[in-house]
């Protein structure tokens, strides 16, 4: 039934389009509704993706940049040569599709486990850590004066927010308390440089092909802050999908990531990256708690959401591995 | 005292039925959901099997560490509060060992295949 609205929409803004077919809701991406469909066109079908307003949303809604900002950021990234899909249309009330946007479909794989295991990506895998460094450097160089209005967060503010989010769960977790103390004690203070931060740059939010990174997705947590945050988040153990000795998304080493970043003309602060990795691990743990809460309180009473609640303990073991490692 | 089969046996029977008899009949997104459902039942079975034993040990460790008595939830609240206030930290004798033991018991239920857990299990649990 979504095809009827999509058909009417594409005929309004895509010259020559005659309708929309093959609409299917994509699984994966827990925080936004994403559909794939084809635009019927006399020159042949055009692959497209619809992103529209969330239903059950994991992070606190105040953290989201909003779909309009997301569309603007993807378009800016595309124009600057950062791998990103081209935005085709920002939804208006006339579209009757909610809020969101339609973008060009980039072919490739987003499912992290497939990227890490399938032969198709065997040649790309060893290059990815370094390549990701280069992509992040490009993203951090997007001109600040062209960005949409975004929230700005220092490490200190983030720690306070995590503390509040964790306490709102009313769920005693000694390991999280330990992590919060560690973060306060190791807060590196304001970053000398403030840039665009993607906010959810990780294996699972990248479209990968045999040639490497084809697109960066899920810009909804973009904000202004310490660029080292993105380098720390991409190393969080949960995004290594089992390849725990390859910190960068299960692809490769921090050294490769840093080399790719610096080759693109930017500086790495390894101590700050480590701080943000601890921060990111706790952040994912608190997000898992948020999923549990959303499941329990009803906005998304799905089994998947319930099970993500049970992933908080993976961040506890990873926090212990970071903060209280045991000998061999 | 309730009759048998036990909850563990009953839950396991349902999981096995879904896994062996229903999985071959289902495809697409419903197959994904079915896998999640089976994973949930397996988790519940693991928790029913292990929880009483691991909670008892956790309470024992917490009582020694904190010098107070209470339920496993109450004692965790006390510990969380003391860490938050800076009264206990990784320099406190026994705290790191307690947190490791407790976390390993959680992973044994939540995600026994999680790579970090398997690595740490290889260090002797």
TrEMBL record, chain A:
InterPro entries: ACAD10_11_N, AGP_Transferase, Aminoglycoside_PTrfase, Kinase-like_dom_sf
Aminoglycoside phosphotransferase domain residues: 25-262
Gene3D superfamilies: 3.90.1200.10, Phosphorylase Kinase, domain 1
Sorted UniProt keywords: Kinase, Transferase
Pfam families (UniProt xref): APH (PF01636)
Name of the featured protein: Tyrosine protein kinase
Keyword Transferase carried by entry: yes
Gene Ontology MF annotations: kinase activity
Organism: Bradyrhizobium manausense
Domain of life: Bacteria
From TrEMBL, chain B:
UniProt-recorded name of the protein: DUF6285 domain-containing protein
Pfam families associated with the record: DUF6285 (PF19802)
The DUF6285 domain, residue ranges: 24-114
Provenance organism: Bradyrhizobium manausense
């Amino acid at each position: 039934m979504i095809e009827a609205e999509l058909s009417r929409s594409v005929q309004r803004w895509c010259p020559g389009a005659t309708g929309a077919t093959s609409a299917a809701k994509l699984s994966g991406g827990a925080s936004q509704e994403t559909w794939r469909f084809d635009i019927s066109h006399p020159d042949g079908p055009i692959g497209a993706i619809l992103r529209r307003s969330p239903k059950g949303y994991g992070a606190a809604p105040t953290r989201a940049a909003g779909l309009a900002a997301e569309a603007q950021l993807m378009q800016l990234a595309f124009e600057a040569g950062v791998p990103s899909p081209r935005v085709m249309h920002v939804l208006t009330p006339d579209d009757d599709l909610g809020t969101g946007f339609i973008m060009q479909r980039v072919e490739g794989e987003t499912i992290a486990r497939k990227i890490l295991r399938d032969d198709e990506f065997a040649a790309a895998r060893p290059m990815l850590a370094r390549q990701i460094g280069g992509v992040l450097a490009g993203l951090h160089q997007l001109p600040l004066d062209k960005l949409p209005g975004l929230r700005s967060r220092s490490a200190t503010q983030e720690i306070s927010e995590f503390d509040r989010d964790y306490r709102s769960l009313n769920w005693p977790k000694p390991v999280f308390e330990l992590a919060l103390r560690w973060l306060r004690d190791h807060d590196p203070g304001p970053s000398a440089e403030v840039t665009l931060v993607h906010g959810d740059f990780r294996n699972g939010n990248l479209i990968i092909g045999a040639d490497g990174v084809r697109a960066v997705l899920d810009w909804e947590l973009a904000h202004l802050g310490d660029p080292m945050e993105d380098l720390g988040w991409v190393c969080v153990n949960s995004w290594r999908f089992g390849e725990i000795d390859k910190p960068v998304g299960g692809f490769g080493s921090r050294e490769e990531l840093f080399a790719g970043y610096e080759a693109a003309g930017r500086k790495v602060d390894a101590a700050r990256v480590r701080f943000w990795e601890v921060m990111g691990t706790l952040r994912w743990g608190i997000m898992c708690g948020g999923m549990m809460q959303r499941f329990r309180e009803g906005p998304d009473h799905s089994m998947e959401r319930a099970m993500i609640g049970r992933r908080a303990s993976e961040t506890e073991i990873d926090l212990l591995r970071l903060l209280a490692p045991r000998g061999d | 005292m309730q009759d048998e089969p036990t909850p563990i046996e009953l839950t396991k029977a349902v999981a096995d039925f879904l896994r062996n008899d229903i999985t071959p009949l289902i495809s697409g997104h419903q197959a994904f959901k079915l896998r999640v459902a089976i994973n949930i039942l397996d988790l519940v079975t693991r928790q029913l099997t292990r929880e009483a034993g691991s909670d008892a040990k956790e309470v024992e460790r917490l009582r020694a560490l904190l010098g107070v008595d209470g339920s496993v939830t109450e004692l965790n609240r006390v510990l969380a509060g003391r860490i938050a206030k800076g009264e206990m930290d990784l320099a406190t004798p026994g705290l790191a060992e307690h947190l490791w033991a407790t976390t390993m018991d959680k992973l044994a239920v939540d995600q026994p295949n999680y790579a970090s857990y398997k690595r740490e299990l290889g260090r002797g649990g």
